[in-house]
Task: structure prediction
Amino acid sequence: MTQYNESTNEANCLLRHVCKLAGSPEQCTRNCQAWIGLHGASGAGGRISAANVPKGYRNLTLKDSPARESQSKIYATFDKYAETFERQFNPERSEAAERIKSFYLWSAQPGTGKTTSASALINEYIIAHYVGALKLGLTPQQRPAYFLSVNGLHQAHKTAYSPGAQETKDKYGETVTREVERSKQAPFLVMDDVGVRSKVSDSFIGVLYDIIDSRTTDDLPTIYTSNKPLHGAEETPSGLYDLFYDEDPEGKIVDRMRDQCAVVEFGGTSKRGRR
Ligand SMILES: Nc1ncnc2c1ncn2[C@@H]1O[C@H](COP(=O)(O)OP(=O)(O)OP(=O)(O)O)[C@@H](O)[C@H]1O
Ligand SMILES: [Mg+2]
Result:
């Protein structure tokens, strides 16, 4: 376990592994401009909060992810993958080999570290963006990446389109529109729990298709997490539990998702509560 200088801001700041000043008593404080840019002066703002990373996962990097040890092979792949994040500054990213790829992280078992790992990856992307932009003399974007909770979007969508008070429906309708726009535009996106566990309406499937189709058309990378396997239309689906097997039998969504996307199955049993 890495030891941080506890009298400084090092342990709280995502830049701890890349910043030369990390742990320095005078400079590594809550007044540091880089800390404020990434985490906000209070620690609950900045680009990490704008990216909507869930609260318990905001301080994770690949190096200190709790899932690293038991998923060591997968993390070796992620370490290599994170090195490709500097391609975001490469204007000639149009060649497939030069693109940042997508990942589909799944396990039938809950609590194997999928959301943890997706969060570590989005944080690494934001770090690469922030540091890379400053090195190039550019202002880092406010929202270079976004974390979309598909369950959250599903709930908002249901409320917006179910009978109820108009005011409430309008409010949730606006949430859906905002989330969809952010998800389409984010240079890097996490779609957490894409195989939502309750029954999905055709109209919500249309929303997911809209996001995924728009991103693949624009060659934008996405990390999906799911409890279901991803099978293409050309393969024999293993059945009822495959992603969108019921909702999208032609496999239109799944085929888009598989574009430039590596599938990683998380093994093991639930580690929930092990923190
Ligand atoms: N491989 C692991 N080793 C140690 N702790 C882990 C591991 N995987 C997950 N955890 C811990 O278990 C909890 C749940 O992890 P996480 O949310 O990433 O699971 P998940 O795979 O996304 O689960 P779900 O299928 O329910 O979405 C977290 O507190 C996390 O720190
Ligand atoms: Mg999860």
Observations:
- The helical segments are 33-39, 46-50, 72-83, 114-135, 150-160, 166-185, 202-217, 252-257.
- Residues 114-115, 192-193, 225 surround magnesium ion (ligand 2) (CB under 6 Å).
- The CA atoms of residues 103 and 223 lie 5 Å apart.
